[in-house]
Amino acid sequence: MPDLSNLPYEQAIFYLVSALAVGCALAMILSKNAVHAALFMVANFGLVAVLYLLLRASFIATIQVIVYAGAIMVLFLFVIMMLNVQEADPRSSRGPQDRLFTLGSLAPLLGLGLLGALAYVALGVKQPAATSGGLVFANIQDVGALLFTRYLYPFEITSLLLLVAMIGAVVLAKRR
Amino acid sequence: MSEDILLIVIKVAVLIVILLTVVAYTVYVERRIMARMQSRIGPNRVGPFGLLQPLADILKLIFKEDLTPAGADKVTYFLAPALAAITGLAAFAVIPFGNTIDLFGIKVNLFIADINVGLLYLFAMSSLAVYGIVLAGWSSNNKYSLLGGVRSSAQMISYELPLGLALVSVVLAAGSLSLGDIVKAQANLWFIVQQPLSFVIYFICAIAETNRAPFDLPEAETELIAGYHTEYSSLKWALFFLAEYMAVITVSATAVTIFFGGWQGPFLPGWLWFVIKLSGFIFFFTWMRATLPRLRFDQLMRLGWKVLLPLAALNLVVIAGLVAAMGG
Asked: Which of A11, A17, A82, A128 is such that its CA lies 20 to 30 A from the CA of B233?
């Protein structure tokens, strides 16, 4: 693998990929066709994986592609195709209008809250020390060691949570 | 640095040309061998022994009319075959197909990129390959295509899990995800000898991943016409064909690299050993296609979830125990 620290125009690549990623995210929200939205999301995941590569985190980048683009989004697409979701137009929807209205008025509030939280985190981040060229950041050994030492309990609890969710899904599916 | 990039670009271009040729002749060899197995003659009219048949087929495909169904989702319909072909070709980038050779005084490594997560990259490409098929099925606006696409995605998702578990057991024994390191770890003993069960699980899952017989349900003619590519014609159809045979070559090359010592072998140069082993696998794929009947869908799912997945998990636990016991 060519050493990425010598890659020319690294900044240019970073800005290009970031802009494309944001563009794909916007396109996902704005597209009316559910399958197209899912595809824009896949593209977004792929571009974020490129950003991880620029950070020399090749392991995280590959896992991003396998788990998000390869597994989760395929399942999403599967469900969308099976249910045959039609193009959604909220203006023409006939539903319990009152409830829809209260939920709709909540959305900007929630969005603002999320934006605030993001801004808080982004402003609070200390500029990390510049990574030296030889450092391989977040490779598989580092991730594994951290997961099984410092973050052992969160890791185990997450796996327990997933197991519970899986058993719950099986129970619910069996009952029907 | 710039020379490095130039070398990589040349290697990529040469490899793509070689792979396309290999795909074309894999189809030819398969037709000839299957014909022999079924007491037929097979293509033998174009050129000596019919050797120019692939060329004739490609020319024919180029001049066919390129149809797009009226109700199709145009962009996705266009994108799907490209996605299938690109993921198929890109997967080959990490496979080491020979030792370092001297060419005009330059040392050339016979792989595109020996990245330290090579195996995961292969896995990522094969999981992305689902998109080509699913999107083709959905965008064609044809119920047989859709059923074929849905079937194939269910099949590929189901068989990816035992496939991954089988590969993890090899990674545990080799202690690395880099395919170059995995090949070197087999200098004395191939992993097929150490872990025969991992290989059997891997290979069954690999056949299912490539949608080949006896797991070729996504294109079961009697039920689904041609499955996900029913509506495709001309070069778009050729791209799906390319993707399918590329997948066969890639999983065979992966099996050679991970279980059969890669390019290593006595006397002959590395790349020749690689070609010999790879040819063996491609012959095996053909042999199976001519021999085995197609499974039913419920049989396929039962085999994947109730037999292969528990077996692969058990295999992983035993091998992890052995590796830990030997202080690996």
From this structure: A82
